[in-house]
Design goal:
4-stranded mixed beta sheet, alpha+beta, Glutaconate Coenzyme A-transferase, about 270 residues, about 20% helix
Length: about 270
């Protein structure tokens, strides 16, 4: 359900815009990404990155349409509404799996009902699996893609203790697993890089692989983040910086070319 996203104090933008720009800046020029369901923030970020610092970024819209460039982001990120301007269409959604398995696609983004300190994600059940309080839509391809894709990005527009939990009720998608060298010991490439929320940006501490506060959005304190997080938040050495200010050009492109209809607000 869409709603109005709050303004970011002193930045001349709203929190959805700050999240998209921050996500976009994390994309390298060699990014080869695809998207899943309800992925408006990542889709807008891929499109913005390609218009700014990463012109060679490859994006497979809905895992089907390679290098799509639709006029607007439609009502669903799995819809053929996103396929406009594509250079190639896969024959079916299954075709992309061979590219994912070989890491020819190298970037994917997860959002879940629960996320833990190691970037693992639950989108299956709340409560015991055999007798849950809530049965969620399911992981889709999370279980496989979390193992295959070397660059994983997480995001959430609901930074609260229900979302960021000490222990998942079910692990639908793997991030850094149990932390440390667990993921590498299983032969999985890469792992989660960042988690971008409506309060802050987390990176992952290199040794423990736990979420670590990388930047705070304006108006948010370390204490605010800790109160909204169900596990201990690691801090960097020194003062936590503010999340970088979007440029006027990034905001112009987002508002007029990337997502003029505000589809990203469906996540708020």
């Amino acid at each position: 359900m869409s709603g109005a996203a709050p303004a970011v104090p002193g930045y001349g933008c709203t929190i959805d815009e700050l999240m998209v720009v921050t996500f976009s800046r994390a994309m390298a020029n060699d990014t080869r990404a695809f998207n899943g369901a309800v992925s408006f923030i990542p889709v807008c970020a891929y499109r913005l990155a390609r218009r700014t610092h990463a012109p060679d970024l490859v994006w497979a819209a809905s895992s089907i349409a390679v290098d799509a460039d639709p006029d607007v982001v439609g009502s669903s990120t799995l819809s053929d509404e996103l396929w406009g301007g594509a250079s190639m269409l896969a024959n079916s959604p299954f075709d992309f799996w061979a590219y994912a398995q070989g890491a020819r696609y190298n970037t994917f983004a997860f959002r879940g009902a629960q996320m833990d300190a190691y970037g693992n994600v639950n989108n299956s059940v709340i409560g015991p699996y055999d007798n849950p309080k809530i049965r969620l839509p399911g992981g889709g391809g999370m279980a496989d893609l979390g193992c295959m894709i070397p660059r994983i990005y997480l995001w959430s527009t609901t930074h609260d203790p229900r979302t960021f939990v000490d222990r998942l009720d079910f692990r639908s998608g793997v991030g850094w697993g149990d932390g440390g060298d667990h993921r590498a010991s299983l032969g999985m490439p890469g792992g989660p890089q960042l988690c971008i929320t409506n309060m802050c940006v987390f990176d992952f501490e290199p040794t423990s692989k736990r979420m670590r506060l990388a930047s705070l959005h304006p108006g948010v304190s370390v204490a605010d983040v800790q109160a909204a997080t169900g596990f201990e938040v690691l801090l960097p050495g020194g003062e936590v910086p503010a999340t970088a200010h979007p440029s006027a050009e990034e905001l112009r492109l987002l508002r007029t070319e990337v997502d003029p209809t505000g589809a990203r607000l469906r996540e708020f």
